[in-house]
Amino acid sequence: MDEALRERVPFGANGPIGVLVDPRTWRALPYLMVSVAFGLAWSLLVVFGGTISLVMMAVWVGFPLALAIMVAWRGAAMLERRMVRLAFGVKIADPYQRRPERGVFNHLRWLLKDPATWRDLGYLALIAPVSLLEFVVVWVLGAVALRLITASFTAEFRFGTEMAAHTLPVRMLAMLAGLAMVVLLAYAVRGLSLLHGTLAAALLGGGEEERLRASRARGIDAAEAERRRIERDLHDGAQLLLLSVAMDLGRARTKLDDDPEQVRELLEQAHTGTRAAIAELRDLARGIHPAILTDRGLDAALSALAARAPIGVDTVVELGDRPPAAVESIAYYIVAESLANMAKHAVATEASVRVARQGQQVVVEVWDNGIGGASLQQGGGLTGLADRAATIDGVLVVSSPVGGPTLVRAELPCAW
User: Fold this and answer.
1) Beta strand ranges found along 261-341 (DSSP E)
2) Which positions fall inside the Signal transduction histidine kinase subgroup 3 dimerisation and phosphoacceptor domain (predicted)?
3) 212 vs 353: CA distance, rounded Å
């Protein structure tokens, strides 16, 4: 298990006291108790649903049923990733290949050829016995600990079937044994969390090579989209302005001897068009990489963005040393796009931007109290930001229920 995963599974505290007071230990306990129900449900889906669909392949009904079961188990795997994150803190991004834009057969090929589909199946097939083991261990240890602790307060309790204990030393001994079982339960929860988190990361997260390949593909797509945007902005903006300037100068040259007054007007138009083209190019250059970000860093660049927002934006940057240039650039564009979306769609009255260092990551959070409803849609601006973050193995998550508020959070790995 790699160090990043080890840090996210509740193994940070040392010693019995540290284990007992660590909230991550007890946060995992409810999931370990109820995961057996999910495990059995997923087994029924995979085993019985798969068997029924195979039997019915003799008639045409079996094929759509098998496809529906396949989609269902991918949905179950997505749910498991989110529950594992809530229970253990293990962050597993959906490792699926990019969905084709159109075509039923293209979607079917995409579903069948994606290795993540079949790793999901492997996880769902294994989770039933694993979750049953977790439930039995936690239930037995918890029941014994609870029996010993509660029995020490009762008027009478029995060890085995014969010896009744009334004396204070025996009660104290029972209490100490119960507390020892609680500590043992806490260590068992930690061990089971490590087991489950490792299994989930291995099967639900995809291999390292595939993850890097997907990240590179998304990076290429993001760079291509950025290139097209620059070409479009040049064609529709600066190029037209410069063409107009060239035409004005050409007309002025033909009338230089005949109509000096019109020449003066044409030169004025050319001058105005030149200034507009320069402004357009300056804005375009700022969109590629703002000079203030290079010269003064992320704090100054984000403050400038906040100053241009239509509402007040509280900006907090807690980084200390400057992160790598690529991380700075991606963080800047995440904030810029998020604030632009807020101004266009959110109808917000308050917003905040927070950028902070957490371990070997830069965490970017953009919040507003608008109407919500933002999502990562194919071809959308937020999806483009997620693609930018993926080029450095970063993750972008959007939480925006209808009615608000909206939180865009990005975790960008880097090293100082």
Assistant:
1) 313-318
2) 226-291
3) 29
> In terms of residues, how long is the chain?
416
Report pLDDT for 233.
64
> Residue 191: what pLDDT?
85
Q: What is the pTM of this model?
A: 0.50
The reported pLDDT for the residue numbered 6 is 39
Extents of the domains making up the chain: 3-206, 217-288, 292-413
Query: What is the tally of helices (H) and strands (E) in the chain?
Result: 15, 7
> Looking at residue 114, what is its pLDDT?
81
| Ranges of the chain with pLDDT below 70 | 1-19, 21, 58, 62, 101-103, 154-167, 206-241, 279-289, 376-381, 415-416
Cis upstream peptide for 405 (omega within 30°): yes
CB 390, CB 88: distance < 8 Å: no
338 closest CA partner among 380, 294, 394, 296: 380
Residues 6+ apart with CB under 8 A from 275: none
Residues 352 and 316: beta-carbon distance below 8 Å:
yes
- What is the sign, positive or negative, of the torsion defined by CA atoms of 12, 14, 16, 17? negative
- DSSP sequence for 6-17: HHHSS----HHH
Residue 24 pLDDT: 76
Instruction: Identify the pLDDT of residue 225.
Output: 66
pLDDT at 309: 82
Return the C-alpha torsion angle 277, 278, 279, 282, nearest 10.
120
The closest of 322, 399, 319, 405 to 354, measured between CA atoms, is 319
Out of 1.20.5, 1.10.10, 1.10.287, 1.25.40, the CATH code matching 217-288 is 1.20.5
Per-residue pLDDT, 91? 77
- CATH architecture for the domain at 292-413: 2-Layer Sandwich (3.30)
